[in-house]
Amino acid sequence: MLTESDLSALLITLQLASITTLILLVVGTPLAWWLARSTWRFKFLVEAIVALPLVLPPTVLGFYLLIALGAHGPIGAFSQLITGRPLAFTFAGLVIGSVFYSLPFVVQPLQHAFAAIGRRPLEVAATLRAAPLDRFFSIIVPLARPGFLTAAVLGFAHTVGEFGVVLMIGGNIPDETQVLSIAIYDHVEALEYTQAHWLSGGLLILSFLMLLTVYGVNRRFSAVTS
Amino acid sequence: MMINDVPTTEKTMTIDARFILNREDFKLDAELSVPAQGITALFGPSGCGKTTLLRAIAGLEKCPGGYLKIGDRVWQQGNIFVPPHQRSLGYVFQEASLFPHLSVQKNLEYGYRRIQSHERKVSLDQAISLLGITHLLNRTTSGLSGGERQRVAIARALLTSPRLLLMDEPLAALDLNSKAEILPYLERLHEELEIPIFYVSHAPDEIARLADHLVLLDKGSVSASGPISQMLTRADLPLSHEADAAAVIEARVCGYDKEYHLTQLDFAGGRFTVTQKPSNPENPVRLRILARDVSLTLEPQSGTSILNIFPATVQELAEENVAQITVRLDIGGAPILSRITRKSAAMLDLKPGKAVYAQVKSIALL
C-alpha cells in the first residue's frame, strides 16, 4: 500500500492543484472576459501567449521559470530580498510554475463560455437597471457555469498531471516539492511496480471521475438552458 | 376630438433626440421631438435605422455628440452620458431574451428588485394581471411559447416603472396567432398606464392599430413626424400610397341597434354604423377605413345598401399610376382617403375644395 512519502506526495499534489486552480480562476476570469469582449486589434498576440503552454515542452517552460525564480532571476532575486530565499525548489515556486503551465486550460473554456453568451443578456440586464458588476455576477456567472466547471476541473487535473515543469523548478524534495507524478517515476526507477500501480491507478480513476462530472453536469445544464 | 390631438397644456412634456452616427455601412442622422405620452411608432423599411435609433435612446449604442431629453431629464448632452442602467427605461427586444437560468417569476423580479421602492409605480400583481401571465409564474422560461415569452418580457420591462418604454418590433418574431394574442395586451398598456412607448415596426396594420404618433425613418434620417391620422393620409408620404392605404379615426360608442345588431359610433364628422361590437363600450374605439373601400358621389345616394355616407371636402389628389388616384378628404375635421380611378375623378371633375359625398363600404374596428 501507500508509504508515508507517497501520502505526503498526494497531499502536496492536491494542495498544489487546489491553490493553482483558485489563483487561476481569480486571475483567469477577468483575462478571459477581456479576451472574449475586446476588439483590440492586437488581441491575438495575447491569445497566442496564453496558449503557449499548450504547445511548449514543459521542460522549456520549466527551464525559463527556473532561471526567473532562481537566486539570480528577477523574481527569485526579489523573493530573496523579501523572504531571504529564492523561489526555485520551493512550494511557492511550484505554484507559480503551475499557474503559468495550466493558464490556457482555465482561460480558454472561460473565454469560450463568455463569448457564447453574447451581448444580448447583458444589454437586457442593463435596461433592467443592473450595474456592470451586478450584471457579471447575476447573469454571466450563472450562464457561464459549465465554463467555470470545465475550467476548474481542467486546471486542477492538468496541474495534478504536471511533471516536466515540477521537475525543473521544484526538484524532487520529499515532503516539500515531491508530487505524485514524480513519486510514480521514482517508484518505477526503483522497480517498485506495486506502488507505481497504486498511485497510477488512483490518478487514472480520479482524473476519469473528474471529467465524468464535468461532462455529466454540463449536459444537464445545457438541457435546462436551451 | 381626434386621437392624436396632444393637449397643449403646460404639462405636456416632449421627448427630444438628435443622434448622428457615421459607420462605414450605415449612417444615422436623426432628429425628433415627440409628445412624451401615448405610443410613438418608428416606422420605415428594414435597414432605415429604426433599431439603431432605439438603441441610441437606450444608451446601448453610443453616439458621441448626441442629445436626448425625456421630459425634464437629460440623458445625453455634451459630456453627459447617463449609462443604460441608470436610465429609467424599459426595453423589449425583438426576441424575448428572457434569462434562461431564472424562472418566470425571477425574471419579472430582476428589474423590479433593482429600483428604489418609492420608484415602484407598477406593482408585480398589476404587471402580471395586465399581461395575463399569472399561470406562468413558476414555469421555467424554456417551456413557454413565443407569445408567452414576449408577454413576460413586456411585464419584466414594465416592472422597472420606466419613464419610457422602448419596444423593438416585439411581434416581428411571432406567428400570426401569437401576434393576435399579444396585440390586445399592448392596447391595454396604452389604455391603463401612462408610460410613453416608442414602438418600432415595419407593419402598417400594427401601427394603424396602436400608434398615436408616427415617426417615419428613411436611410437613417427622420423624413416626417406627426399625429397618426395625418401621417397616414398625407399625400406626400408613402403610407397613403400603399395598396392597403387607410385612414384611422377615433370614435365613441353612442348606441346599439338591437333589432339589426349594429353599433353606432360618434366621430368628429358624424356617426358611423358598424357590425362589430367593441369589447368595452366605455373606451374610445379606433376605426380603420381602407382607401379602396371609400367611393365618391356628387349627390347623396338613396336606394343604396351603404349605411355610412358623409358629406366631405376634397383636399388633395395624388396620382397612384396611370389608372388610379388617391383622394384625401376631410369629413368634419377627420381626414380619410379614397382610392378611385382617374376616369372617375375626371367624370366627377374633382379638385381641391370641391364638396362631395363619401360612401364608406367597410369599417374595421381596431
> Can you summarize the main beta sheet of chain A?
none
The residue ranges of chain A in which pLDDT falls below 50 over 5 or more consecutive positions are none
| CATH topology label of the largest domain in chain B | Rossmann fold
- The average pLDDT score of chain B comes to 89
Tell me the number of helical segments of chain B per DSSP (H or I, 4 or more residues long).
Answer: 8
Quote the beta fraction of chain B.
35-45%
Secondary structure category of chain A: mainly alpha
CATH superfamily of chain A: MetI-like
Return the structural class of chain B: alpha+beta
CATH homologous superfamily descriptor of the largest domain in chain B: P-loop containing nucleotide triphosphate hydrolases
N-to-C order of helices and strands of chain A: HHHHHHHHHHH
**DSSP helical segment count of chain A:** 11
Q: Note the overall shape of chain A.
A: globular
- Which percent range fits the helix content of chain A? over 70%
The CATH class of chain A turns out to be: Mainly Alpha
End-to-end separation of chain B: 18 Å
Output the CATH class name of the largest domain in chain B: Alpha Beta
Widest sheet, order of strands of chain B: 7-8-9-3-10-11
